[in-house]
Fold:
Amino acid sequence: MSGRGWKEISRETCVDSPYLKVYREVVATPTRPEGIEWTVVRRKQAVVVAPRTPEGQFYLIRQERIAIRKVLWEFPAGQIDGVVDEASILESVHRELGEETGCETSDPLVPAGTFWSSAGFTDERAHLFLATNVRPRLSGSAPDEHEAILDCRTFSPDALRGMIAAGEIEDANTLSLFARLSVMSHI
Structure:
């Protein structure tokens, strides 16, 4: 726990898997010193990357999402394995870029901040990046065995704006990163 007035009173494990852990916690907060019970999902931190071609197009992947029973257009993303530091974050961005789009870049990645994916129930934090001058790599894509990536193609920034306005892009990672890049004048 971080911050003044926060203290974990108790924790019971409900689910323990390689991808997430679910706990029933009783936590004292600044306004509830006696504690409140909450169900919390603990997840690894993640990366999200907006791959931009030299022509200014962005790669999106179309991926099955089992939890919501939908197929979504998304920027590539994935969890960070091991200790979270600058090196592991950057390695994860390059890994996800290659695995999910079959692309690579030798340009420095442009950081676009972080965000909490759903602070009401999980501690998952996503690190956002722009990858510039992205080009297909010789080895192509190599999605993780648990992923079902159905398509990968490029879209102009205007096409992405239209897809967002029409509700075709619903993924929080993609919406957050596109918004950040917009205010940073990278789009």
About this structure: The CA atoms of residues 78 and 165 lie 25 Å apart. The longest helix spans residues 86-101.
